[in-house]
Amino acid sequence: MGRYLFRLPDIGEGVAEAEITAWHVKPGDRIAEDGPLLDVMTDKATVDMTSPVEGTVTAIHGEVGSMAPVGAVLVELDVAGETAPEKPAEKPADVKQAKAEQDVAQNARVAETPLAPPAAPASPLNPDPTASPATRRRAREWGIRLEDVRGTGPRGRILVEDLERLRSGAGAAPHGVAPRDAVEEIKLVGMRRKIADRMAQSKRQIPHFAYVEEFDLTELEGLRAELNAGRKDGQPKLTLLPFFMQAMIRLLPEFPSINAHYDEAAGILKRYAGIHIGIATQTQNGLMVPVVRHAETRDLWDCARELARVTEAARNGSASREELSGSTITLTSLGAMGGIAATPIINHPEVAIIGPNKLAERPVIEGAFLARRKVMNLSSSFDHRIVDGYDAASFIQRLKRLMERPALIFIDGAH
């Protein structure tokens, strides 16, 4: 009989540990060579771990959500036995796992109890209620059946306080509907826990300075519609984001401290010549930030094409580690849900994030007349340790000028 120990391999890039995000096997399972064992997550990349041998799983080590160091034994396999043992030897991890499964089953039974349908016919909660005439009158006024009220007075007498508690929703509901006391506990693992950690780190370490400005994008929307109507085969449909990217490309060389990372531990600001724009993207696994690298080398159509490619890769889970890291400034589109303003959280260790909001048609005064214009608010946040309020406002006002006069985006030296 032979035994094979599957250890967490060195994934590279200085990774010392990984989080277990999913198990695909359990003790007793027969696994083929290259069959899936488990998923682990490092930084923002999820890695599938497969078995290098064929055998029977005798033990697994580590719960979903736990961290495992490189070299730690994750799976034990019997590589000689043809069938799985009836009851594999219990390791500490197996006992812990069995207890967790037992607790889950018990919690499920407890949670289901209040939701079970009442027996028919349902017995009244208080079949022989006693109450004072004043309490009975108040119950009639409030439409409460005394049979549905549990009395807390002497010998179960119903008090006015019992009626008030029931009316406010603190007591048992009338007509046989039981209160719902079940509480569902969901452990944050994988991408959701990583997002929670990153958001907390950003808000804890970065003093955010928010700035909101109104943009009139009527001319830009006209240009966008015309370009989309005349686009050639193979050219992507233009949204507003590629125009924002092009305007940022124009401006950021004049505001180098905005296209930067701040290393708080070392006290160093890293200002980047290359413009690597992160695109905040909602996926089934949570918020991801795929990156359009070297946006300064791309034209409008290429920005749109690369933006569509990296966001789709993030959504379908095919994005690589390189495509999910290294952004120097983030662009987050907030308007899809209809918001008019927000305070976006900076993507640590960056120092700025730009968030277009909802685009809507509004009446605008132009001289002595009212005009219909397409207007949006743009929300932005800056690291106030690095970016002063004046510089942040100057950057957004310059961005406003380019977006409201889109021809300037494409004329060298015009911004």
Brief summary of the model shown:
The protein is an alpha+beta fold and 415 residues long. Helices cover 27% and strands 25% of the residues. It is flat.
- Compute the average pLDDT: 85
What composes the largest sheet? 6 strands, mixed
- Give the strand tally: 18
The percent of residues in helical segments reads 25-40%
Indicate the proportion of strand residues: 15-25%
Structural class: alpha+beta
Number of helices: 8
Q: Per CATH, what is the topology of the largest domain? A: Chloramphenicol Acetyltransferase
Order of helices and strands: EEEEEEEEHHHHEHHEEEEEEHEEEH
CATH class of the largest domain: Alpha Beta
Principal-axes geometry comes out as: flat
Measured distance between first and last alpha carbons: 75 Å
CATH architecture label name of the largest domain: 2-Layer Sandwich
Flag low-confidence runs.
82-119
CATH superfamily of the largest domain: Chloramphenicol acetyltransferase-like domain
How many independent structural domains?
A: 3
- Strand order within the widest beta sheet: 9-18-17-16-12-15
Return Rg in Å: 30 Å
How would you characterize the overall build of this protein?
- The chain has 415 residues and is of the alpha+beta class.
- The protein has eight helices and 18 strands.
- It has three domains: 108 residues, RNA polymerase II/Efflux pump adaptor protein, barrel-sandwich hybrid domain (OB fold (Dihydrolipoamide Acetyltransferase, E2P), Beta Barrel), CATH 2.40.50.100; 57 residues, E3-binding domain (Dihydrolipoamide Transferase, Irregular), CATH 4.10.320; 221 residues, Chloramphenicol acetyltransferase-like domain (Chloramphenicol Acetyltransferase, 2-Layer Sandwich).
- The strands form five sheets. A six-stranded mixed beta sheet has the order 9-18-17-16-12-15. The chain has a four-stranded antiparallel beta sheet with strand order 1-8-6-3, with no helix packed on it.
- A hairpin with a 4-residue loop joins β10 and β11.
- α6 packs across α7 and α6 packs across α8.
- It is flat, with a radius of gyration of 30 Å.
